[in-house]
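forwarding from the other thread:

> can someone predict this with 2'-monophosphoadenosine-5'-diphosphate?

sure thing
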Amino acid sequence: MDYQLGLIGFPIEHSLSPWIHESFMEQVNVKGSYRRIEIQPDTNFQEQFSMLKEKKLDGFNITVPYKQEILPFLDKIDPVATDIGAVNTVSVENGCWVGYNTDGIGYLRSLEKAYPKIMKQEKARILLLGAGGACRGIYHAFLNAGFSHIDIANRTIEKAENITTLKNEETVTKVMTLEEAESLIDRYDLIIQTSSVGMKPETDRSIIQLKKIKKGAIVSDIVYQPIQTAFLHQARNLGALIHNGHTMLLYQAQYAFEIWTGKRVPIGDMESKLKLILEG
Ligand code: ATR
């Protein structure tokens, strides 16, 4: 089969997804192509999506600003994506568009690869910083994986509270301000920065200041430009274990590719190759 794949979004000219998926295809001998399909935000969305149906794609990724706008155009939505309320991967199955969200599972896979032990510590205390779409996906994945203590700190408390509606009875979630998070930070085994704070060009910004940290804590940032954010820099100086954002990018793509082709491609040295690309 010759897979016709692509990425929909705006702006996407610098997206690394084509490189990732073409590398996957090469590795497992899958024929096909992965194209960038830019949709300008000021165009008629309905028309653009009808045209997309004509393109006979086998699957595509969908990124900002369309992860929610796509929902009414889907024939079916996977339950995880329904809970998260956003789709980043569409598989065309017998002509039907089926929506998935691979962010949360991709994040967990990347964490497990770097720190396998944490995935078995379901009582670990986890703190998520930020409460946007990425936080929602990651929170959902930890809930599903059986973790019992996942707190959320955000600038806007209501947004964090809204995410806790996903919660089950076994999980305890405390919602707090970023200031509270700063003062309680040494309680946590795993701290995950899920907002865009610290992304290029504002690389000197950190969502909170880390003054102390629990011994052996893992500190993670989903921002991957730069790979070493100011937040991770602080964490490293305090002796934390570090988890970089570019690995999530690879593993969410791995899961998307698996949905389209049924093949799970080993990430192997793609982590270091992607790091080199990002570091220019
Ligand atoms: P998404 O598009 O994924 O929903 P977003 O709207 O960019 O994400 O917001 C992601 C998170 O970054 C939010 O939690 C946002 O905080 P608010 O809910 O208070 O808006 C957080 N965020 C963005 N800029 C921030 C900043 N300067 N300081 C603190 N948090 C910030």
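The pocket of 2'-monophosphoadenosine-5'-diphosphate is lined by residues 130-134, 154-156, 159, 195-197, 207 (CB under 6 Å). thats all i got for now
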